[in-house]
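Hey, why these numbers?
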Amino acid sequence: ELHAVLISDESGIVYGEIRGNNLNTVRSHNEISGEYYVKDKEIKKNAEKLGTVEVYLTPEFMNEELHGATVSMITTVIVLNISLVLVLLFSLRIGMLTPVNQLAENVRAIASGHLERSIHSKRKDEIGQLASDIESMRLTIMENLELVRESEAQLNTLLNATTDVAGLAEVDGT
């Protein structure tokens, strides 16, 4: 708590008030002794020093103020840390999880037979490389599927031709 305020000039204490034991204020023109924190400030008018104000604070008051400031700083640090974690989680979600989820959705579509669905990524990191590799795999599957279809068509043509020849041979009796 505030214990005393003294105003002095070159001649000594001009005005002072001290808290008594029952917390009432008493005027005093005496120096303060004891264990107090003292803050003084010059009183000036037009750069001319008129005197000094001294404020005396008890150690209990200062400890309470220090405790309050410490709690406030710790609270601020906790709030800032939580905010930082939330920003990092949001950044992780935007930067990593969303592209991975989009890539997984495209892979599921390709796996279910939608080979026309191309995968493109502008990323230059591992996710971009994975997208590029999956796109290469999709194109290879499409090429192989086209080769299988062509082979199937050739086999059907050959099978039809063989059936036609066998049918003619039966008609001829040979």
